[in-house]
Amino acid sequence: MPWELGIADQGKGLGKVAVLPTVESQTDVTWSSWEYLGLYDRIVWGDLEGKEKPVWMVLDERENTATELSKWLRS
Description:
Shape: globular
Strand order of the largest sheet: 1-2-3-4
Distance between the termini: 25 Å
Number of domains: 1
Mean pLDDT: 78
Largest sheet: 4 strands, mixed
Number of helices: 2
Low-confidence stretches: none
Strand content: 15-25%
């Protein structure tokens, strides 16, 4: 999987690449130690300021910001 991201970020830049980590169990956190995941924004489900209900969003942990996924995809 990491080599596919390397191809994508060359063409799109890091600002237009986000990863959606998936696991078979909610308690599986082993993916969080994969070093390349720290380079990319992550797609997460959760509470976003200004929204009444949880939404899919793109999380930038370095900047501690998030953008609603639908808005991020349109940009």
